[in-house]
Amino acid sequence: MAVQVKICGLNEPEGLRAAVTGGARYVGFVFYPASPRYVAPLLAAELARMVPTGVRTVALFVDPDDEFLEAVLGSVPIDTVQLHGRETPRRVAEVKQRYGLPVMKAIKVGGPEDLELAVEHAQVADRLLFDAKPPPKVAALPGGNGIAFDWTLLAGRRWPRPWMLSGGLNADNVAEAVRVTGATALDVSSGVEDRPGHKDPALIREFLARATAL
Ligand SMILES: O=C(O)c1ccccc1N[C@@H]1O[C@H](COP(=O)(O)O)[C@@H](O)[C@H]1O
């Protein structure tokens, strides 16, 4: 099965074009104001309208309240909600039910114990996303830090829901990441940027070429 790719943190037409013409199956918009990739709903709506049929739009949130979810989901055409904070399985179920959209829940992996949470979330989330646990420094984002986790933790594991691998992926390590984990879907952000928050179209094309050739 061909590997599917999500390019996350798109905030300019150039990056978006490189993603969709290069073969991305998902494009992600970050609605987390503290992120250098944050995109205002008005601009996200313009970008989302450029996305061709067959490519899915993903809205990334971190512990959003209903007011914020409504403001974004009411104005931007979104196919999937990505929850990347400390949302509980109950909150995931609530968001799914209230907005009628599939939810992908991020699981932050630092050690084997963190995978227990994935077992719980797999009861309600439509998809799991395995990312590295953020480093314990004050300014660290809850994701999008460009760091990988120990991929062998996922080797041989089976999940009752589809899942994606993320965390520190780039064109140079993507083949190894897929080999070790068996992932069939990947999510990348920092690894296709030339500076935090700025996507490099050439790096996007290179990542997609390597990943989709696997
Ligand atoms: O990208 C961000 O700014 C971000 C902010 C808050 C939570 C998650 C975020 N991004 C997600 O983090 C992972 C890993 O990204 P990276 O490739 O290591 O930079 C990915 O799933 C992004 O969607």
Automatic annotation (TrEMBL):
<dbReference type="Pfam" id="PF00697">
    <property type="entry name" value="PRAI"/>
</dbReference>
<dbReference type="InterPro" id="IPR001240">
    <property type="entry name" value="PRAI_dom"/>
</dbReference>
<keyword id="KW-0028">Amino-acid biosynthesis</keyword>
<comment type="pathway">
    <text>Amino-acid biosynthesis; L-tryptophan biosynthesis; L-tryptophan from chorismate: step 3/5.</text>
</comment>
<keyword id="KW-0822">Tryptophan biosynthesis</keyword>
<keyword id="KW-0057">Aromatic amino acid biosynthesis</keyword>
<keyword id="KW-0413">Isomerase</keyword>
<comment type="similarity">
    <text>Belongs to the TrpF family.</text>
</comment>
<dbReference type="InterPro" id="IPR013785">
    <property type="entry name" value="Aldolase_TIM"/>
</dbReference>
<feature type="domain" description="N-(5'phosphoribosyl) anthranilate isomerase (PRAI)">
    <location>
        <begin position="5"/>
        <end position="208"/>
    </location>
</feature>
<dbReference type="GO" id="GO:0004640">
    <property type="term" value="F:phosphoribosylanthranilate isomerase activity"/>
</dbReference>
<dbReference type="InterPro" id="IPR011060">
    <property type="entry name" value="RibuloseP-bd_barrel"/>
</dbReference>
<protein>
    <recommendedName>
        <fullName>N-(5'-phosphoribosyl)anthranilate isomerase</fullName>
        <ecNumber>5.3.1.24</ecNumber>
    </recommendedName>
</protein>
<dbReference type="InterPro" id="IPR044643">
    <property type="entry name" value="TrpF_fam"/>
</dbReference>
